[in-house]
Every structure is written in structure tokens, then in C-alpha cells.
Amino acid sequence: MGYRVAVVGATGAVGREMLKTLAERNFPADEVVALASGRSAGQPVSYGEHRTLTVRNLETFDFRGIDIGLFSPGAAVSAEHAPRAAAAGCVVIDNTSHFRMEPDVPLVVPEVNPQALAGFRKRNIIANPNCSTIQMVVALKPLHDLARVKRVSVATYQSVSGAGKEAMDELYAQTKGVFVNDPATPQQFTKPIAFNVIPHIDRFLDDGATKEEWKMAVETRKILDPDIAVIATCVRVPVFVGHAEAVHVEFERPITVAEAREALRRAPGVSVVDRREDGGYVTPIEAAGEDDVFVSRLRKDPTVPNGLAFWCVADNLRKGAALNAVQIAEALIAQGLLARERVRTGG
């Protein structure tokens, strides 16, 4: 018997990617329901190559009988409707930031900490980490198992799709405008994004860090190890899809480049493309549409004891959001957790 799945925020970039991913991976769903705000109700959305779903109104939807809810409607909407869905017996996998740091909500990357799923029944909610955190911890996990990560310094180069469809539209419009001398009027960003980079994602905190930089630090500790120190500088770049990161890692014991490369090559969800030649690395445009986290430019960092540096790239809409959420659902099924929950709730 298959599962009944609801995709919440189905008209957004991540919601559409969730529907696409469910279809591509042949997720065992007997029914898939597309949900969004009342303004979007009645719109068609694609589910795979040959099926179309009609969007239904989230505000009036009854979640009883729905087994899995993949949520990506924005934090405020998830805060209101995810607990309502969970109370109806639906296991919520939420892509927003709202529940991530709540101690009784698992924050999960299946390649890194699948064991954390065991605690989901406390709230019936599982949190999907931040996109930039996901790709970094996927790459760090095999290295941490090998030599224990002590400290991470990371600079991110994050595409505009991480800020939503309107941000992508703004980059497109500003890029065209440059060639016809139209002045750029920032709306989604604080400064023009076309042909520019902006060292500011999310709001500023009292210590000078942005919320995005804070997320990378606290989420890495919750997912991987509470003793890891993380300093991040998060930058928005004029790329439509795909986040890149320059990562410098200090380990507790010596680790060679060869050891690290071999560990990464064996790791699930990682592809190593590291040829020391022109073009022997992966860029965001090549990672778009791909499932893996790509690691390149692996080398020793001589500025700290036991240091390594690498470049990692991933599709932020797939592994950074939709794919990770679907993989969480798959892991629940593989571990027998969802089946037991279905019996308990009468699904």
C-alpha cells in the first residue's frame, strides 16, 4: 500500500521541485495533493512529466488521512499549519527555518544523522536544514568520522533561487536592464544583484553576523557535533540555481589529502571531481539538476594544524531543499518508522 502525500507551498520553487522529485524517484504514493494559499487554489502544477495536479487551499484543507506533509510555504505559514497537520496524524517534513532549532524536533540530513529520526514522534514534525548547511555537512560527515572536525570557516556563494521566484525574476530583469541602461531598483535585495555580489543574506544580528551565518553554525552543531566551531560569511551571487562554498576545516588529528579524498569518494551523496587542471572542478551551473554534493579543490590548509580546504557545490533547490525532504520520507519508510506511525494513527 502506498502513502498519501501533501506538498505544501506547491506553487513555489521548492514546492515544484518537491513534486518533481517525488515523481522522479517513484516515491510510493497512492495520492499526492498540492496545497498553497487561497490565491493559488485552482492553479495547475506539474507532477512528473505526464501528470498535472490542481492546487487546493491550504487554509481549509483537512490533513486527516494524509501520511506525509512536505512543507515549504514560508516560516510563518508553517508555524500555523504544520502543527495542525501533525495533530491530524500527518508526519510533517518542514523545509522552513521555523522548527529547526527546537530541541524536540529532529533536524535531519539522511546521509549524516538518520538516527535522529527516531525522535520525531514527540511533535510529529521533522525539520529540513538550511540549504547551505545541508551541502556542507554532507561533505563534512565522512571527514568528521575520519579525524573529527574541530573548526570550520566557510564562505558561501549562494544563488538567488534561495530567496525565491521573485528574487530570480529580479536578477533576470536587472541583467536585461544593464544592456539597455535601465537603472536597477533593488526590491528583493539590498543592492543590485546583477553583475554584483552581496555579503548579506537574512537579517543582521547584534554580533554583526547575519541570520543565515548563524543558521550554518547552530545547525551544523545540532546535526553533526555540538563541539564544532563554525564561522560563516554568506554571500548572494548573480547565479540562478546552485550554491557554492569555500570550506576550510581544522581537525583534531592529522589527516592527509589522500585520506580525505578516499573517504569522500566512499561517502553517500558525494561526488569528488578534483583534477588539478583547467576546468577540473564543478561549478554551480554544472550542479544544477543533480542530486549529489560535488567536492573539488581538495588541498592542505597550512595555516592551521591539521587543516584541509575544499570547494563544494550543490543544487540548492534539490539537495538543499526538495531532495533532502523526500529522502527523509524515504528514510522513515526504510526504518519502519512511518509504517508504525500509520498503524498508531489509524492511517
User: How many individual β-strands?
Assistant: 14
What's the level 1 CATH class of the largest domain? Alpha Beta
> What's the quaternary structure here?
single chain
Write down the overall mean pLDDT. Answer: 95
Distance between the termini: 11 Å
Model description:
This protein has 347 residues and is of the alpha/beta class. The protein folds into two domains: 3-128 and 321-345, Rossmann fold, CATH 3.40.50.720; 132-159 and 197-316, Dihydrodipicolinate Reductase, domain 2 (2-Layer Sandwich). It contains nine helices and 14 strands. It has helices at residues 13-24, 75-87, 131-147, 165-178, 211-223, 257-266, 284-287, 318-334, 337-345; strands spanning 3-8, 29-36, 44-47, 51-54, 56-57, 68-71, 91-94, 125-127, 149-158, 229-236, 243-251, 270-272, 293-301, 307-314. Strand 1 (3-8), helix 1 (13-24) and strand 2 (29-36) form a beta-alpha-beta unit. Helix 3 crosses helix 6 (257-266).
Brief summary:
By secondary structure, this protein is of the alpha/beta class.
Short descriptors:
alpha/beta, Dihydrodipicolinate Reductase, domain 2, six-stranded parallel β-sheet, 347 residues, six-stranded mixed β-sheet, 2 domains, Rossmann fold, 14 strands, disordered C terminus
Topology (SSEs and partners):
Blueprint: E1 3-8, H1 13-24, E2 29-36, E3 44-47, E4 51-54, E5 56-57, E6 68-71, H2 75-87, E7 91-94, E8 125-127, H3 131-147, E9 149-158, H4 165-178, H5 211-223, E10 229-236, E11 243-251, H6 257-266, E12 270-272, H7 284-287, E13 293-301, E14 307-314, H8 318-334, H9 337-345
Parallel strand pairs: 1-2, 1-6, 2-5, 6-7, 7-8, 9-10, 12-13
Antiparallel strand pairs: 3-4, 9-11, 11-14, 13-14
Helix pairs in contact: 1-8, 3-5, 3-6, 3-8
